[in-house]
Amino acid sequence: QTKSGYTTLLQPKSYTAAQALKTWQFYALWWIFFTNITCGIGLLAVASPMAQEVAGMTPEAAASMVGIIGLINGGGRIAWSTVSDYIGRRSVYVLFFIIEIAAFYLLAQTTNALLFQILVFVIISCYGGGFSCMPAFLSDLFGVRQLSSIHGIMLTAWALAGIAGPMLLSVIKETTGSYNQTMQVFAGLMSAALLLSVILKVKSTKH
């Protein structure tokens, strides 16, 4: 606080895109973003056929579920970004992965149509929330000096995940003949991302 009574705030360092690319935090966050989208978009790709095969839903009910997924995706972006304003972006990403690990694990076990839909909706809400919280997370870590450029580079994770998610799911499904194994693999990927997000939270907070 200054003699005049005004409080002076210590401003965080603002990075250029080139400087951000030299930090381990950027690549940790890139992988976290990539994992969340890979698993989420992989589930989106097979939501309808999986609902029919695993949960015994009719094609009409599965189609209705897919329609609701679109609403949940959008709603999750609003809801989770609001939550992140209160608990912080680091904490909300940790929460994403805790929820998704449990949801993917349970999704691999259930044949109940109602529970199946609830789990899918929960996962998709976290998938959407991952998108909406990312710009603010980047701002927290790297400032706003070249936030647009940094965010643009981060979106390469989305581009690659759009290919990796459906491809990974297809390979595992063809190899094992079951969606259950795929969901377990996704839960494992989420576990690795959870560990990385905890490290990022602890290290970044100390820094």
Distance between the termini: 23 Å
Provide the residue-averaged pLDDT: 88
Helix content: over 70%
Main sheet: strands, sense, barrel: none
Unreliable runs, pLDDT <50, ≥5 residues?
Answer: 1-11
Number of discrete helical segments: 8
Quick tags:
207 residues, 8 helices, disordered N terminus, mainly alpha
Describe this structure in a few short sentences.
Helices cover 82% and strands 0% of the residues. The chain has 207 residues and is an all-alpha fold.
What does this structure look like?
With 207 residues, this protein is an all-alpha fold. It is 82% helix and 0% strand. It has helices at residues 17-20, 24-54, 59-87, 89-107, 113-142, 147-154, 156-176, 179-206. α2 (24-54) packs antiparallel against α3 and α5 (113-142) packs antiparallel against α6 (147-154). Residues 1-11 have low confidence and may be disordered.
What's the arrangement of secondary structure elements?
Layout: H1 17-20, H2 24-54, H3 59-87, H4 89-107, H5 113-142, H6 147-154, H7 156-176, H8 179-206
